[in-house]
Each structure stands twice: as C-alpha cells, then as structure tokens.
Sequence to fold (479 residues):
Amino acid sequence: MFKCNYANLRLSFNEFHGIENKDMPQYGEFCLLELKDGRYTGGAWHPSEYKKPGKETSGKFIRGTADSIPAQDVARWHSLDRYDMSNCLVQEDLNYINLGVKDEGTYSVVMKDFQSLRDGSFPKSEQYCLLIMTNGELAAGRWEFYSNENEGSFIYAPALASHSMKKVWAWTPLSSDDTFAAEEERENEKKREEELNKNPTVDSEKFKYGTDIEVYYEKALEKLRKKYPWASMAQMKKETPWEIVPLHGQYVFGQVNNVFKHETYVKECENVRTADEFIDFLCKYTKEVVKNSDPAKKFKYGMDIEVYLDKAFEKVKKDYRWADKKALKKSCPFAIKQINGDWEFTRRYKGSAEDHICEHATSESFIENVERDYQDAAIAANPVVDTYEPSFGRIEIHGWYLERYVFSKLKSGDFTVDVTAGDRVTGGSRQFFITPDCFEAKTYGEFLDRYLEIVPGRSFGLDKEALQKDAKLKKFLGY
Fold:
C-alpha cells in the first residue's frame, strides 16, 4: 500500500477545460466538474449527438441511474481518466501533487482532507466523493451503504455500477447536491420521528382495551368463531399482522415493514376511530384466510400424507410412465405438520432446513400442487438424448418475439418442447410435456392437432401449417 499520509495529501487540479469554448471531453470520459454555482462534482460525458466529437456541448455528465448533470450547469471540467499517481504515493513525505501544468493564470482547484475507509471513516449516505484508488488512479462516486453499515460502494454509473470499497485508498467529499440533501433531510426526519416516539400519546377511544395487540386479536377471533368455529390465531396471522406502534408521537394500529438500509416503514390502519372499529376491521381483514382453512375441506382424506401423495402419483403415472414413486417422494418431501398450533400441508425444499407451508383451502388443490411438482421432478430425472429446433423467422406474439422453440427427446422415448419469448425489457420460458396420447394419432396431421392443444400456435408462435411443412421435425417425432 502507498506510504504517504493521505490525511496530509493535497491534490491541485490544473488545466481545466471551459464549456463555453466548446472544449468537451471524449464520449464516456469521467471528469471532475466545476458547476456554474461554484460546487464540485463528477460524471461521465454523454453528448446528445455524436457527429462532432469533442465539440458537441449539448448533453449530460452521468453519475448513476437517474443521476446526471446537464452540460448547461457546468462551467469547467478536468479529466480524471488520465492519471496514475502510483509512483508519487510511495513517497512518505509527499503532501502535494500537481495534476497538470500550473502556469501563471491557470485555473486551479485544490482537494484535501482525504480519509480512509480502512480506518473506519465512511462518507455519509448518498455523499458524492473524489476517490484515490488503490492502483493510483482517480475516480468519483456516490457512497451507498449496504445492509451492513460497515460496508458499501461508490456508485458512478447507471445500473448500480460501482467502485468496490476494497479498491478505494482514500476519499474526500465533493459538494452537496439535491440527492445528498434529500438524504440528509430524510436522516433528520428520522431523528425527529425517533424523538417524538420516545413518549407516544394514547387515544383512549382507540385503545380502550390497552396497548397489547393480542387482546384485539383475541376479541376478533371470538367474533370469527361464531361463523367459522375452526378459526385460530395462527390462521388470522397468516395475513400480514397488525401491531400497536408509535408513529408521529402517538400510538397507532399499524403494519411494520423492514425496508432497505435498516429502515422501517409503518403503514397506519386508516379510518379506524375506536377500538371496536379496529376489531371489526380485523375480522374483515382475516376473514378469507380463516374461511379457507376449514379442516374438513382441507384434510378431506384424513391426516395421513401418503393418501394424498398416492392420489397425486396415480394421476402423474398415467402420462409420465417412467416415474418412480420412491424417487418422487424423496425429491418432493411433503408432510402434514402442526405449525403454530394448526395442522398444515408442508414441503421442504432442497438445501433448506425449514418447512414451507403449502397454502391450500381444499384437498383437491393440494393434490393438484403435488401433481405439478411430481411432473417437474419426473422430467428432471429423465435425461435428454436428442434435440431438434425448427427454423423460424421473425415471429411476434402479443408484443413479444419468439426466441427459442426446441423439441427434446428424453431417454424414455418421450418428448418435451421448450419455448422462450421476450421483448426488449423482459422475457420468459416454459417447458411442455408432449403427452403420450398425442403419439396415439395415426397421422402426423392428427398428432399436430393434439399437440397444438398443449402448445397453441396462437399463443406460442408456430401454427400447424408452419410445423407440418418441417420434414425434419416430422422424422424427429417418429412420423
């Protein structure tokens, strides 16, 4: 690491370029900027047009996603991309570096008061800083804390492109800007809120049963059981639970969400003026989940999980003829367990030590869920031995474009087809199993009719006419 003392180091930036002279950086060049109001920041130059490199003054200096400085706000710029100070920083007694020739009359700016992340000195959240990198280069970026507030990075471009804190040797803050000011105001508001909430007031009408939320849930549960005798507290709390929490200096009924950067957000229950109104609200809020938790419908076939798994396997085995019951049960471990006092269908996923609750109101819907998981597991256990991709041109499907359409032959002799489509922003893929009844068709045309009920041409791009004229596909499918 460099030997000079960063705390005593001063950098003199000379040879600034003036915007008024149409003396502009190259496209993408990262610069130290002096704004017309005297503040300093940084950014990568992106001209509006590229016809006159170095002359086009219309554009912006980009600092991050939705974070840029218009060229008309900039007075001067100085490139940060051109320097490597490694040879200088190895000198112990170094405390001043000239960046560019300092002639008489040259406009210069000195940056000082550098600090180190390694010494536990972190910028404030959203603070824009000048950086000296561990390789001796210069950079700039906006500091962002991670969830662990002893870690973070400096954002310098869109899509959260950042400089790792491990690659930053020293930093010093540049001028405040709107983003940083908004963050500081948010922090100040947070402190004001914390101060207000130290001694919250209590509305006697709203909290006439006290400030223990369990009392209100118990009263709501008592009401619900008149219509739904199986109702339980565990069922009610499957919906995001309500709490009694301080907000703006007074207790409220609210939902507390932990959000980014250790922040919490309280959503207050609105239009509730009294304790009894809140209890009525709780009944309405939890009614559907309680209604759909009737054990007589949920566990129609009893409390033995094997009964449900066998019913699912019987249906899967009809088409997925190679499926092995023991292997499927091992790869898809379902159970009936007591969770928070209620009996639930559960599944444990690979690599997880926790039981995931399968939310199903009826036995039939749970069995259908097991079927889907068994089908996926059966396909995954049946290796692909050959593939064929029909050729197709530009195909648009409801604003999406067909990207991939591949038939696969499995070791068992069965077939699947994988379809991928997307637009300029997003996309999706689906795999379809071609059921054996399709291959019971006597002619290829009849096969396609059955196949297109599974993978409709109107939905996935290739219709009967397009598929029928593909002789290689016909042969690949065994016709």
Observations:
- The chain has a mean pLDDT of 92.
- Residues 125 and 144 are 6 Å apart (CA to CA).
- The longest helix spans residues 178-196.
